[in-house]
Amino acid sequence: MDAVTEAKRNAGYRAADLVKDGMIVGLGTGSTVFFAMERLGERIASEGIRIFGVPTSNQTAMRAEEYGIPLTTLSLHPVLDIAIDGADQVTPSKQMIKGRGAAHLREKIVADAAKQFVVVIDSAKEVSVLDAAVPIEILPFAYGSVCRKLASLGGEPVMRNGVKKDGPVISDNGNYIFDCAFGKVDDPSGLESAINAIPGVLENGIFAKMTEKTLIIVGKSA
Ligand SMILES: O=C[C@H](O)[C@H](O)[C@H](O)COP(=O)(O)O
C-alpha cells in the first residue's frame, strides 16, 4: 500500500473509531471514507455495535452492503449523530471544497443533518486558500442561464464529461455537473451563498458554513 493510501486508511479508521453503539451515521463518498466504512463493517462483526448508515451516493450504498453496514433514510432519521466524509481541499479554518465524485449535493444535506461532521483526508488536501474548481450540480433545463450567471460571478464553468461515456456526467440525482474555476476564493462562505442563489443550481461543493461542528482528521502513514 502506498503512503497516500495508508494515510487515507489511517484517517478513515480513526473516524470509524469515534462511532458508538446505537449511532445513526452519515456515510460520505470517496476513497477515504470507504476505509472508514471498511472499519465500521469490522466493528459491527467483531464488537457487535448496532448502527445504521445514511448513504450519500449509489456507490456508497453498494459499499455499505458489501461491508455489512445496515442502511436507513433521512426521512426516518432526519437527525444524524455523526457524518463521516472526505474532501478535496481543506483550509486551516475548516472550509473546504468537495465534489470530485459528484456527490456533494447529498453530502451537504447529510452533513447538515449531522450533529458532528468528521472529515477524513490525507495531508495533500490541506491548503492555505481554496483554489480548486468548484463542482456545481445544475438542473439540465437551466444550465445555459446558470453558466451565464456563474461567469458574471467571475467563474469559468466547464461541463464535466464522462470517462467511459460520451457527453455529460449525470449525477445520482439526474443532473449535470460543472466544474467552475474562480481562482483563489477569498470569501468561501460568500461565494457558496452567491452560487446557490442562482436559480437552477442545486448545490455547490464549497462547504464553509458548518465549521463549528467539523472535526478534520488528517491521516498519517508509517
Ligand atoms: O463527491 C465526492 C466527494 O466530495 C469526496 O468526498 C471527495 O472528492 C474526496 O474523495 P477522496 O476521499 O476519494 O479523495
Automatic annotation (TrEMBL):
* CDD domains, alphabetized: RPI_A
The superkingdom of the source organism is: Archaea
**Enzyme Commission number(s):** 5.3.1.6
Residues of the active site are 107
Judged by the first EC level, this protein's enzyme class is isomerase
Pathway(s) per entry: Carbohydrate degradation; pentose phosphate pathway; D-ribose 5-phosphate from D-ribulose 5-phosphate (non-oxidative stage): step 1/1
| Chemical reaction(s) catalysed | aldehydo-D-ribose 5-phosphate = D-ribulose 5-phosphate
UniProt keywords (A-Z) are:
Isomerase
Instruction: State one molecular function term (GO).
Output: ribose-5-phosphate isomerase activity
Q: Which InterPro entries match?
A: NagB/RpiA_transferase-like, Ribose5P_isomerase_typA_subgr, Ribose5P_isomerase_type_A
> What Pfam families is this protein classified in?
Rib_5-P_isom_A
Query: Which residues are involved in binding substrate?
Result: 29-32, 85-88, 98-101, 125
What Gene Ontology terms for biological process does this UniProt record contain?
A: D-ribose metabolic process; pentose-phosphate shunt, non-oxidative branch
- What GO cellular component entries does it have? cytosol
Q: What family does the Swiss-Prot or TrEMBL record give for this protein?
A: Belongs to the ribose 5-phosphate isomerase family.
Q: What does this protein do?
A: Catalyzes the reversible conversion of ribose-5-phosphate to ribulose 5-phosphate.
* Quaternary organization: Homodimer.
Protein known as: Ribose-5-phosphate isomerase A
Protein's organism: Methanocorpusculum labreanum (strain ATCC 43576 / DSM 4855 / Z)
This protein's encoding gene? rpiA
